[in-house]
Amino acid sequence: MFEIIDNDISSLEEDSYHLLYFTASWCGPCKRIYPMIERLSDGFDGDDEKNIKIYKVDIDQNDELSEKLKIKSVPTFFLYKQKEYISQCGGADIKNVKDLLMNII
User: Fold this and answer.
1) Which of the following is catalytic: 9, 12, 24, 30?
2) Report field, pTM of the whole predicted structure over 0.70
3) Would you call 27 a catalytic residue per the annotation?
4) Which one of 7, 69, 83, 89 has the fewest CB atoms closer than 10 angstroms to its CB?
5) pLDDT tens digits for range 1-10
């Protein structure tokens, strides 16, 4: 899993899908879903066919990006293909995240 720490999504230019996982260190639901997101991320490592990168974005360290994308609650997940927005979901239910990714897998 990668981290965005510079309030910038310019790294999303690479030809792949990008799942942005908006979280906060103080968020209980974020802490509960994190191990599941990590396992999900491990499943994509080395699998060029899926070509999905997951980014952990701390809203307190990336306030400009969080404001730009209008993040109202955490955890929130945004799916991009390069810099093109595809869809999003929120909440600490891993099923929602898997459903979001099912459209591209």
Assistant:
1) 30
2) yes
3) yes
4) 83
5) 677 767 778 7
